[in-house]
Amino acid sequence: MKTPLLVFNTKGIYCQAADVYIDPWKRVNNAIITHGHADHSRWGHKKYITHHTNIPIIKHRLGDINVTGKEYGETFMINNVKFSLHPAGHIVGSSQVRVEHKGEVWVFTGDYKIENDGISIPYESVKCHTFITECTFGLPAFRWVPQDEVFYDINSWWASNQVEGKTSILFGYSLGKAQRLIKHLDTSIGKIYTHGAVENMNNVIRSIINLPKTTLITKDTSKEELKGNIVVAPPSAHGTTWIRKMVPFETASASGWMTFRGARRRRAIDKGFVLSDHCDWQGLLSAIKDTGAEKIISTHGYTEIFSRYLREIGYDARTEKTQYEGELNELDTSKESEVST
């Protein structure tokens, strides 16, 4: 039996013909990395390949690593296997990986979304025979509204809190979501303050894209300074002593999980805004159709339900288990692991 071009094993997604892994979750010699979130880029590999804009991000997280940067669409050969990286639209520096060998083409999406968020290079559809797709939000209940509408609501919420003399605290993961929020906040309302985890990542990403001015909250920042302004912080800051100096305040979370009111209640959040860096149900289906692929492999998310639906509409679809958490980690408020939001 012919060995598939990409296989899933205990270390990650493996291309045997090239002896290279894509987003491996255990230490390997050669790794192609789709993006900087902790569930996709891990420490300990001997050699890394990624998009060049992702290099400062993963070096910030992983330290001094042996990494090579590639351009989008640039072809590179490993043991006669042809690889290229293509925009995933997930966060800054995120990529899909195209793999071609002996006339067969596979694409691994990593995490992706098809809406242009204004900070990452927009998603590019890549033709292939087999498409490996995440399906974090692979249920019909997940249907995103355009981000312009979401940010109108976020800025209106901030302005309303300002009138009432409250500080607005907006939670989003320090890599990706936080910068997307900051980019679209209306600075005519007031100042943007940040948690240290967010500001540290901002300093890295400012070398790649332009962001509005932000101010780091320190021990010397007073309650009066914060009143009426907005604070962008990771979810792990919620319920900690760090936010006590901000009373009176209102909290909000920007996440795809805010589709479900129960998620907001479980997290004791005052306001929920439905904003995700992943595809919704229709986005997933649209992306799959545009690839022209006949074989679809679903990973991390509602894999069984999503694959069953794909089979019902004519695809050769199956699932594979990975150690990617995706936005599922947002349901755990006890940690900030910099996975996708």
From TrEMBL:
Source superkingdom: Bacteria
Gene Ontology terms for molecular function: exonuclease activity; ligase activity
Enzyme class name: hydrolase
SUPFAM superfamilies: Metallo-hydrolase/oxidoreductase (SSF56281)
Keyword DNA-binding on entry: no
Keywords of the record: Exonuclease, Hydrolase, Ligase, Nuclease
InterPro entries in the record: MBL (IPR050698), RibonucZ/Hydroxyglut_hydro (IPR036866), Xnuc_lig_assoc (IPR026360)
EC number: 3.1.-.-
PANTHER family: BLL1145 PROTEIN, CLEAVAGE AND POLYADENYLATION SPECIFICITY FACTOR FAMILY MEMBER
Protein name (record): Ligase-associated DNA damage response exonuclease
